[in-house]
Design brief:
Structural class: mainly alpha
Shape: globular
Mean pLDDT: 88
Strand content: under 5%
Number of strands: 0
Number of helices: 13
Order of helices and strands: HHHHHHHHHHHHH
């Protein structure tokens, strides 16, 4: 089970098909209980480790640049290079955090048990990914309006709904607003870092299991599987985006979404 959930996390977190949506489907059809929160955190830490490795050059440069950003943040709209990138990540994280704090598990919980809601969110993901296919923008970070990052962050916040893909929605909306597709993907990857760190900190307070209760072997297997599969999924996604095949995931989302809607309502 640990390996299976690690594979599920590693594939669906990065490909535009929604990790939370597939987790909801898996729980609904195959298991009666949610994975322990501690195990869920470990899976996400596996994904986080990989994204820190894949984006290591950007992360290192932003850490070096951060003091300079703090000195120049008053001139927010005219920042360039890594200073501008830091500003965009902060801007995008604001609506994501607001949505995450406002809509807690008691509100979102119904989406994990009502498959027609998950299906509707998957259809939304498929459509926005498909709609973005005709947008092959040229904008890099320096000529992408910082205020547009707020909208990217809003779409990232929508991924609190199972079935809305975080990577799919943020990459798609960035492309639609003119960002270069590969740059949009790498920007989405960077946005994952504060988002998952924040979500993890929120979940830590709800942990009621100890390592001994969950088991050290399942934690290790889940972490390693999530990390390994995430590495290949990220590289696959980047390759598909370079070849303008990002929208190839739309049929899968639409077929699965329509199936969940029809099987739940009829």
């Amino acid at each position: 089970m640990a390996v299976l959930l690690g594979i599920l996390q590693g594939i669906t977190e990065w490909l535009p098909i929604s990790s939370s949506g597939h987790l909801a489907i898996f729980q609904f059809y195959f298991v009666e209980e949610e994975p322990p929160i501690l195990f869920d955190i470990i899976l996400h830490l596996g994904s986080l480790l990989v994204i820190l490795y894949v984006m290591r050059d950007e992360v290192r440069q932003m850490l070096v640049t951060f003091p300079k950003f703090l000195a120049n943040y008053q001139n927010f709209g005219n920042l360039k290079g890594d200073e501008r990138l830091i500003g965009m990540i902060i801007m995008a994280s604001i609506p994501t955090a607001i949505i995450g704090f406002t809509f807690d598990s008691t509100i979102i919980g119904d989406f994990y048990t009502e498959m027609h809601l998950v299906g509707g969110c998957l259809v939304f993901t498929g459509l926005i990914v498909w709609f973005s296919k005709d947008y092959d923008g040229k904008k890099q970070i320096d000529n992408f309006p910082i205020k547009n990052a707020l909208l990217v962050g809003f779409f990232q916040g929508l991924a609190i709904l199972p079935g809305v893909s975080r990577s799919g929605s943020t990459i798609a909306i960035s492309k639609i607003m003119g960002m270069n597709p590969v740059r949009a993907a790498r920007f989405s990857f960077l946005l994952f870092i504060p988002a998952i760190v924040g979500a993890t900190l929120l979940k830590i307070g709800d942990i009621d299991e100890t390592v001994s209760e969950v088991g050290i072997l399942p934690l290790i297997l889940g972490f390693l599987t999530s990390a390994i599969v995430s590495y290949f999924s990220i590289n696959l996604l980047l390759e598909l985006i370079k070849k303008q095949r990002f929208h190839y995931f739309t049929p899968y989302c639409l077929i699965l979404g329509i199936y969940l809607i029809s099987s739940s309502l009829f």
